[in-house]
Amino acid sequence: MGPPTSQISCLLTLINQAARTLESGYNKDDGVVPSLDQIEPHALDGKLSAPDTQEAIQILEGACAQLCATLARPNHTLVNKFFLTALEPSSLHVAFMFNIPDVLQETPSGMHVNEIAQRCGTEPSKLARILRLLSAKHCFREVEKDVFANNRLSVQLLSSNPLRNLGLHMTGDTTAGSTKLAETLADPEWGHSFIPAHSPWNKHTSQPLAMFDYWASNPDMRQHGERFGIGMIGWSATVEAATVVHAYPWKDLATGATVCDLGGGVGTMAIHLARAHPSLQLKLQDIPDRVVQAETVVWPTQCPEAIRENRIEFKAVDFFRESPIAGCDVYYLKNIIHVFPTAECLTILEGVRKVMKPASRVLIHEYILQTAPTGSQQFESDSIKLDVSLMVHVNGRVRTLDEYIALGEQAGLRFIKVWEFGDLSGMEFCAKENEG
């Protein structure tokens, strides 16, 4: 027996309400919901979303997917939403490798596939079929037969956009590694292991080192690490991680308060902090390659004033063998804990705990894994997708709030509260013996 009509009505109500909320957000700005054919950025594209907007998008996506899965035949949904979608990342990877968004940007009205293929050095009819698939998913548009143009989505993939670097990683390393997911789980040793080097990515590449370690130790692969570092700028913008700059009470810290961005990559979030709160003294710590990239490439172009004014210190660290810079007011860890097994997470947090002042805080900025309450329907969420992606890359995982709190307790930290930072959350801790 099918679901009661009331369930369909509830989903339709959710979809209508969410769509109206999002439409209202555009109307408040300039009264125009941008067309998918538009390639110029909309005024709202670079602004942080209001909480009701973020919630509305999650509801709209989840309710639409559930409605389609409920009303369509099961075999239709399985074939079209699961089986055939495996082609999409590989098709998008073609667009990245041949820089097709950049090529199309030269002719906004559209370019014939023969000319695109000539620029790319590939066969036109095959390229047309791939671009047609992507256009059907609303990334690019087919203006007329075999004539393609950029649109609101594909223009985000220009080589000048950090999001392209994330796309290369996800459609390359992630897609390739995921093909070995079942084989890895079936392995008698690896299937039960949480060692980072026992991941599906390792099974695919036959590399003995964990992904990030392999990139760092192999000169031929360091470009992957650099690409990933830039890609995280695009990812942070997508999940609106910069909400932390406004939602956390940085302004309440004393002038000259020190913030250690531990494992901060090239310093994406530290740059946001430097711009918004010039009274802070920032410390960026990561592996040597990322620190050098940050100090010599990223910060001189994106935040030179912080270097000029001595508001940023760059210092490499191996947080498995040494503690971070001592005595900072806030130790900020964004997307670090989810990469490692429990033992390694405890090593990192215990290292931080050793150098904290009595009033120091630890702020862990990550997704909190959302699971379905008993008896309720689970909507698809980014935390669930990232959870599996981390398993593919490094055997990592997204944790529940209770798991984060337990990690802190074991490392000598006391949980204070959860902060909402865009799609992500912030778990704030102090030293366990400090009741302040």
From TrEMBL:
Q: What InterPro entries does the record point to?
A: COMT-like, COMT_C, COMT_dimerisation, SAM-dependent_MTases_sf, WH-like_DNA-bd_sf, WH_DNA-bd_sf
- Is Transferase there in the keyword field? yes
Q: Does the keyword Hydrolase apply?
A: no
Please give the Pfam families that the UniProt record associates with this protein: Dimerisation, Methyltransf_2
Going by the UniProt record, its keywords in alphabetical order are: Methyltransferase, S-adenosyl-L-methionine, Transferase
Domain named O-methyltransferase C-terminal: residues = 237-413
Which GO molecular function terms does the record list? O-methyltransferase activity; protein dimerization activity
Name the UniProt record assigns to this protein: S-adenosyl-L-methionine-dependent methyltransferase
Q: Which GO biological process categories is it annotated with?
A: methylation
Tell me the ranges covered by the O-methyltransferase dimerisation domain, including all copies: 86-160
- Coiled-coil residues are none
